[in-house]
Amino acid sequence: MMLPRSPDLEAGTKRRKTTNRPYPRSGPANAPPAGLSRKNFHHACRELRIRRSRSWFLALVCLLLITLLASNGLPILSKGIPRILLPWLDAPNHDNQDYTRSVYKPRKEDLDLGPTHTRGDFASWPLESGSKPEVDPRSARRFIAYLPHSGFNNQRIALENAMMMAYILNCTLIAPPARLGTPLPYRPSRTLEQHHLISAKKDPEECSEFLDYTPPECLGHNQFTLMPWDELIDFQPIQRDLGLDILFMRGARTPREFLYNLGLPEKSITFLNDRELYQYRIYDTQHLDNETRPSSRYKDGWHVEHLQGVLSTSSAIHFGTLFGSGRLRLQRPEYVAARTRISQGMAISHGAILQASRAIRTRITEFSHDRHLYLAIHVRVGDRKFKGTAVKNGRSLWWQLITRLGISKETGRVLEDRFLQKTRKSKRKTAILDSLPGRFIKPWYNLSQPYYPHERCASPHRDLGSAASYLGIPLFIATDAAHPRLHPSLAIFYETFPCTFVLGDFPDEIKSLVALHRPGDVSPFGRFLVPLVDAVIAGHATHVIGTQNR
Fold it and tell me: Please, is 191 exposed, middle or buried when counting C-beta atoms within 10 Å of its C-beta (0-12, 13-18, 19+)?
């Protein structure tokens, strides 16, 4: 039976063997030299054997390393080893980095001067072919950058916030391109930057340079495209009015790479990293900075004067996310006016998008009494945030719409009852009515004058009086639903508004847009512009209501 290893047991066994072993008559073959005891002699021999074994082991290891280096096999071997066993692969190359801490833990709680990328030699990457540093790090020019994420609307909100910060801090804005198609969801800023890098790789094998696995972002390159913002929107009026300086990125570089290519050393960039989507808010008034609001989704706050102080010692501030309609809490009149100007100037100006939207608007207004009037709603049901409440949000939008048309709640209940009876669904209108704002909502129209709809748009609910005639106004639904006519959140609109349209009703008008090519594209990129047509049509409606970002 095998006994467990025990130093005491093994020592006792050895002592017994040594004690009971008889010596040869002629004396021991390996007798100790004169003046050296037998015990010390055996100890010296054992030490010699151990040293010889170590020497042979080290020699074999050196031979193996030389073989791997000669065959370029060490990088291949390292890919199969867990990264926790190879800490130098993730160690940032920064003089101020505390290497005794976790690799991804900032030196300070929020402000960090170290890189967020797993490649420690990021700062030593070569510049683009033929490019030269454009900025002297000692110059007075300052920059801000950020990491975009999520869908187009969220990217637009982040860009507006970034433009506002550039205005407040008097900086040059580095604007990453818009990502159209499959969105890149929010992640903590350090991880988000990595996924921006790997999603730009054409070959999935290139992703292994950054991560130990191949994430989905590496596999769906035909599911998205990158487009500079100034190709979608004309920023010149905003820049002229507010004195904004914006550098629009092109291609798949990250803002960090862009700053490096401008000639900024890494130590001159301050990174304001985040670990949660709503981690920090930015204020312009001191009492708001100190204010604690349990209902606020933001946990921390930064005063603009603090950020101005950061730029006194840094050439750039690199934010993580800047998404959020409430991210900037500004009260100074100058800032409020600038924010309004930015928001008003963010209209799509891409020629092909405008051409397609004009053609569709012409088709819609054919069913209007004056060839101009139509309504629009924007219903978000595809995002994870809105999927669970899609039907409730759709019903809330429906109530807002008929209230704006001047239809009374009593008539609205009748319309909803008819819809529920027709679809054989349980009556859930009470919860929807309770969620509507109690304040008076001024109607868009004077119902004392009936509306005379197109014959195709005549309401089947004419028995409810002249108010029901306004249900014949053409309605356009901008939505991210894959099959709008089958989606339960939109069914009540089709039931009560006879002339309800969606983008899919106009395939001929968007055919030329879908076929658009750019130099170097393998497949047409125009399909990624189609959702923007949806937004432009809704934005040009006589009246529009959108899903609230709750």
Answer: middle
Copy the structure tokens of residue 456.
């195709």
Integer Cα distance of 534 and 536 in angstroms: 6
Each domain of the chain, given as residue ranges in start order, spans: 89-344, 351-546
Q: What does the alpha-carbon distance between residue 227 and residue 13 come to, in Å, rounded to a whole number?
A: 78
Q: Give the C-alpha separation, 232 to 218, whole Å.
A: 26
C-alpha to C-alpha distance for 321 and 282, rounded to whole angstroms: 12
**pTM score of the predicted model:** 0.70
167: Cα separation from own chain's centroid: 23
CB 367 within 8 A of CB 474: yes
- Alpha carbon of 527 to those of 300, 329, 352, 360: distances in Å? 40, 36, 12, 16
Kindly give the residue spans of alpha helices, DSSP state H, lying in 390-510.
Answer: 390-404, 409-423, 429-435, 491-496
CA 236 to CA 350: how far, in whole Å?
14
Q: What is the pLDDT of residues 267-306, one digit of tens each?
A: 999 999 999 999 999 999 876 555 545 557 888 889 999 9
- C-alpha 32/C-alpha 26 separation (Å) is 14
d(C-alpha 516, C-alpha 353), whole Å: 11
